[in-house]
Amino acid sequence: MSDSSEKKATSFLNALIAGGMAGTSVDVALFPIDTLKTRLQAPQGFIKAGGFTGIYNGLGAAAVGSAPGAALFFSTYEIMKPIVYDRMEAMGFKDQQAATHMIAASMGETMACLVRVPTEVVKAKMQTSGTPLVGTFQQVLKEKHGSPLAAITGGLYRGYGVTIMREIPFAMIQFPMYERFKVMVGDWQKEPASALQAAACGSVSGGIAAAVTTPLDVIKTRLMLGADAHGVQYNGMVDVIQRTHSAEGTAVFLSGIQPRVMWISIGGFVFFGAYEAYKRSLSPYLD
Q1: CA 98, 114, 256: angle at the middle one, nearest 5?
Q2: I need a surface site. Which of 118, 201, 229, 253 has the fewest CB within 10 A?
Q3: How far apart are CA 114 and CA 33, in angstroms?
Q4: Distance of CA 20 to the CA centre of its chain
């Protein structure tokens, strides 16, 4: 990738709108697969968590949070890419596209989790209990945990730390691969990758990242649900790991890997294809 391609920034507004539209499209379309994945990871087991019934439980929470979460990620990611690249060049690090994408994506994930974590907490509880959106939200607000903000936010940010620990490695695997695959396709055909080709790049890179980070996703799901199969509250990430491993063994940390990889691979295809298409359509007006 050339220096000029890194420095050509997508505008904040373009990334904000394109990311939000793409995120909503994917989260709503593939929501049933996400529900099945969450129930496979639930401590009470797949059947008791709902099985194949009510697979759209939690859709309201996902719909509310998907657009702002995706918009926050991509607006941060696109804005920070040229800034990080220039800073690294100024420090004497030349031609560091992969590191640029890792750092920018990590910043994007940190910002997106401010919206994504409360959404996932409410969504996961709805997916495994079948309670309505308003009732679940009120219940979560009444929960208390170790955070100093719990008096205000309740359990909305339960699992924020482990979600960051999941999302940053995920982004550091996916986005350098995604950007590199697009460059390889462009070099091969002597023109930039199309939206369809970008979608395929996003699908492959997302599937690989999803498989590698599944154990962190299992820990995140358990922590957000708040309690084990017997109703005993979890006390942080280490407690989740120790109790889950003791009760269910190592293999449980790969629970839901098939629907997770399928969901993110299909979602990556739709998401990145939609994002690139929206971004290019909006570029004449917003960039």
Answers
A1: 70
A2: 229
A3: 24
A4: 13
AA letter at 179: E
The two three-digit tokens of residue 197, written as one number: 């080709």
Helices (H), the chain: 3-7, 12-29, 31-41, 59-90, 97-129, 133-142, 150-153, 160-189, 195-212, 214-225, 237-248, 257-286
Q: What is the CATH number of the domain that holds 123?
A: 1.50.40.10
Q: Which two tokens stand for residue 229?
A: 């199969």
Q: What are 183-240's pLDDT values in tens digits?
A: 999 999 999 888 889 889 999 999 999 999 999 999 999 988 888 888 888 888 899 9
Closest CA to 193 of 178, 211, 171, 207: 178
- Distance separating alpha carbons of residues 181 and 1, to the nearest angstrom: 11
Which domain does 193 fall in, by range?
3-286
Locus of tokens 């596209």? 97
CA distance 62 to 126: 10
pLDDT in tens, 34-67: 999 999 999 988 999 999 999 999 998 888 888 8
Residues with Cβ within 8 Å of 193's Cβ and at least 6 positions away in sequence, in order, are: 182, 185, 186, 201
- Note the pTM of the prediction, 2 decimals: 0.74
CB atoms < 10 A from the CB of 147, how many? Answer: 16
Please count the structural domains in the chain.
1
User: Are the CB atoms for 67 and 20 separated by under 8 Å?
Assistant: yes
Phi, psi (rounded to 5 degrees) for 236 = 95, 175
Helices 237-248 and 214-225 meet at what angle, rounded to 10? 100
